[in-house]
Amino acid sequence: MKFCRIATVIIIIAALLIPAVTARERGDHRYIVTPAKEMTIEDSPSFTPMTDGSIRQGETDWFATYIPADKTELIIDLDWGDTSNSLRLRIYAPDAVLGPYYDAYDGVDGRIYLRIKSSVGLHPGTWQFEVYGHQVTDTQDYTIAWR
Known about the structure:
Radius of gyration: 21 Å
CATH class: Mainly Beta
CATH topology: Jelly Rolls
CATH architecture: Sandwich
Low-confidence stretches: 7-27
Mean pLDDT: 80
Number of helices: 1
Distance between the termini: 62 Å
């Protein structure tokens, strides 16, 4: 009997200490990531701002943007042009990690051009982009932009 009471008290305390999961946690935002090259020229976005960077083998650069609650699509364009070098892109949404994505993902050499969509909306908050020098000789210049 005493053991059952102690176990019941432990379960009640644990239930009070563990935060409840809200309805907008993982699972509500189902992301579909596709190469953005599938867009027609009319759909092609104009990116502002576009950021220039440079990276060496094994280095990591970080970028971030705030995604509002009503946004259902994000397009990211990482372009370095030199097919002898390879960069990697990983995307950190507030509720998920997407990637890693490499040069071959979208079929465009020297570029990673992605479209991220969610029919219920992208998770609002700060999204971070990790650019990594996967296979780089010397220094590789690049641009990254999103909209």
